[in-house]
Amino acid sequence: MDILENLGLKVFSNQALKILDKSGATVNYDKQTAKIPQHLVDEALRKCPKTVILSARNPKLDVVLDGKHIVGTTDGTGISTIDLETGERRTPTKDDVAKTALIVDALDHIHMYYPTVTPMDFPGHAHVLHEYDAAIDNTKKHFISGATYLPEEASFLVEMASTLVGGREELTKRPIISAVACMMSPLIIPSEQTDSALEFARYRVPLILMTMPLTGATGPITVSGSILVGNAQILGAITIVQMASPGTPVIYSSYPLSMELKTGAFSVAFPEATLVTVGHIHMAKRYGLPSYGGGTISSSKVPDQQAAYEKSLCALTCALAGGDVCGTIGLLENYTVLSYEQMLIDYEMYEYMLKICAGIDVNYESLALETIYKVGMEGHFLAEKHTLKHANEVWTPMLSDPRPYATWKEAGGKNVVERARDKVKEILSTHRPPSLDQDIKKKIAEIIKEGEKKIPH
Amino acid sequence: MSVKSEEFFIQLENSVRNFDVDAATEVAQRALEAGVDPVEAIEKGLSKALKQVGQRFERGELFIVHLISAAEAMKAAISVFEPKILEGKMKRKALGRIVIGTVKGDIHDIGKNLVSVMLTAGGFEVYDLGKDVPAASFIEKAREVGADVIGASALLTTSMPAQKELADAISESGLKTEYIVGGAPVNEGWAREINAHYAADATSAVGLVKRLIGVEG
User: Fold this and answer.
1) Does A35 touch chain B if contact means CB atoms closer than 8 Å?
2) Per residue in A32-63, pLDDT tens?
3) CB atoms within 10 A of CB A217
4) Share of chain A above pLDDT 70, in %
5) Which of A5, A34, A30 is nearest to A17 (CA)?
6) Residues B202, B128: one domain?
């Protein structure tokens, strides 16, 4: 609060400055700064819904963020794809968006879709609309729009979503889309992201307010310093949103990076970055807000062991810290490169993690005392009724292979990346996407065409 | 060169080696008042020390934050000397001149700042225009200082067209400058498409600039 009241935020959005001014913050229009008093932040926090529901086009797939569930999504939005056939990096396409949405549709514990890549084969200024278009063809799960920069983009996306759900009022009741708005570090409220967020907020589309401090560069090199700086940005953003459109669902999001000191390069999954995320998860809990941070992220360029350990250490740490949205599958190299294989390997890690976080059941049935007595000192449990009864509760790997060497060798001796590749191809060739009404499809296509014309570029 | 000048050079060297911006500013002030040649002071006091810091960084003895702090100390001293240098129309010895900035519409600048520092540490004269810089400003500054290289950074895919715009502006301007681009969404393919050179990070940028200008090391 000290920072918000005394140092203040740099606010590049005129709209946001006016909102803060009207609400009682100390605003300087020339310098584009705002000092926000404690009572205003407190009021804003009170207006935030404590449970956030991210709806899906199939209500059975609705996501409830109430602090009691861990939820998974894809990571995004990358700018390059590792081709599934050639293994080479290439420009991402709308088809990549479609395929990864289809894969998400097939994965039970991934509850929402965030565009894994931005399609470069369609007009860039309307990329948000094309990302959504590819997603709705392949899954009814909740859609998160990443990187919406212009209010016009937001307005067309709202139009598309309203068409699908039956009107804008219906969208407010059942928000089948949410949007990320990224603040800037150290203490900057940028104009485009904020203005488009305010457009979404008009319809109470849930907002994922995100901070990404780079420790040692755009935030202090010490973990708690960067926690502080990031927290100030989010509180500032929440205040702006709630003063403009009270009751807009918000999610507290954090994706810091920490510096490798010998080169100045950054990683999303070094210990310091993970710890800053953990700090923000704790802050979110303190404010009674759902958190979205960490997950299966890595600075590795390929699906290798660095990817595996960075992703698993970061994801598990954040989940154990109490994060709500913790699975963020699919990308490498600091959220910039899509790897289809990695997407499933991440899912495997994520499901493993969910099992760990579910904890240990200790009750009469799980203690199995009766069965232990029955089997006795030298028997076995393989065919016991108790074993059969509880067998389907055990974690089943999609990719992990514990078989002996000879068996594994005979089956092809494939490593996990190769097995993931096979599984991706299997899902893509067998999973059927949900159907989309043709009339609605036509309306959507018209909205996209209009968006391509009207969105500034 | 008087004994007094030598003393100032050593003090300037130390301020850079100790990553001390305040000391650098203070010594530069006193050196100016004592009539020390500013160009000599930069060369024999500051650049010399920064070069050594750079070498220690390359050997892994120092971290990047040390290199940046040392360069900041040097920059602080140079800004004290600058008015005198302009006044006397003196020429600084530099390996080359670079105009750098983040393109119009983009306010992310940390990577670009790292490149600026590394280039300064590498012995180049860097004119950093900051962020959200229109193409015309790059061109104007490059013309004014006789830049050898123009560098443009973009973090957002939506900012990349501005890098192309600048490429076009450079070719139309008739300036004989090299053009380098960087930033998270940028890659070799994009650079080639817009007739620019690509640097993946700050260290590569220094190597690239040295190659383009035709300098050793």
Assistant:
1) no
2) 999 999 999 999 999 999 999 999 999 999 99
3) 23
4) 100
5) A34
6) yes
Please say which residue of B34, B64, B87 terminates a domain. B87
At residue A434, the 3 state secondary structure works out as: coil
Which domain, by its residues, includes B159? 97-213
**Which of 62-101 (B) contact A at CB < 8 A?**
63-65
> Shortest CA distance to A390 belongs to which of A358, A366, A374?
A366
- Verify whether the Cβ–Cβ distance B158 to A259 is below 8 Å: no
Model confidence over B134-160: pLDDT tens digits? 999 999 999 999 999 999 999 988 899
**Cβ contact B185–A216 (<8 Å):** no
Residue B151 belongs to domain with CATH number: 3.40.50.280
Residue A329 burial (C-beta neighbours within 10 Å; 0-12, 13-18, 19+): buried
Tokens representing A115 are 């565009």
Report d(CA A100, CA A305) in Å as an integer.
23
Say which DSSP state A7 is in. Answer: I
Helix axes A416-430, A94-106, angle to 10 degrees: 90
Complex ipTM value: 0.84
Are the C-beta atoms of residues A298 and A310 closer than 8 Å to each other? yes
**Which residue of A80, A184, A221 is in closest CB contact with B107?**
A184
Split into its structural domains, chain B has a count of: 2
| Residue A148 confidence class, pLDDT cut points 50, 70, 90 | confident
CATH code for position B61:
1.10.1240.10
- How many other β-carbons are positioned within 10 Å of the β-carbon of residue A368? 16
For every residue of A154-178, DSSP letters joined together read HHHHHHHHHHHHTSHHHHHHS--EE
Is B49 in the same domain as B74?
A: yes
Two structure tokens written together for A72 = 């998974």
Closest C-alpha to A317, from A284, A271, A285, A362: A271
State both tokens at A266. 């950054």
